[in-house]
Amino acid sequence: MLKISKLILLLLFLISCDNIQNPNVKKSSSGICHEIGSQYYKQTKKFESFSSLQDCLNSGGRLPR
């Protein structure tokens, strides 16, 4: 029973880590807000995470040109 509990905890941890790695919006170090599916979203490595585009823009970010 203890092994099953540890396995469940490990799976929950891994699922939560995946959500951290894939935010809805990334603000790059240059201040550009990239949504999931946009041209440079996957290429953006140094970023601040946001749950929405509006939150990113409100933090001082801008849309890509």
Question: What does this protein structure show overall?
Answer:
The protein has a domain at 24-65. It has helices at 2-21, 53-58; strands at residues 25-28, 33-35, 47-50. It has a 3-stranded antiparallel β-sheet with strand order 2-1-3. The chain is elongated. It is an alpha+beta fold and 65 residues long.
Portion in strands: 15-25%
Low-confidence stretches: none
Helix content: 40-55%
User: Counting H and I runs of at least 4 residues, what is the number of helices?
Assistant: 2
Spatial strand order of the main sheet: 2-1-3
Q: Nearest-angstrom radius of gyration?
A: 16 Å
Label the structural class: alpha+beta
Q: Give a short account of the largest sheet.
A: 3 strands, antiparallel
> How would the global form be characterised?
elongated
Order of helices and strands: HEEEH
Number of strands: 3
Distance between the termini: 55 Å
Overall pLDDT: 86
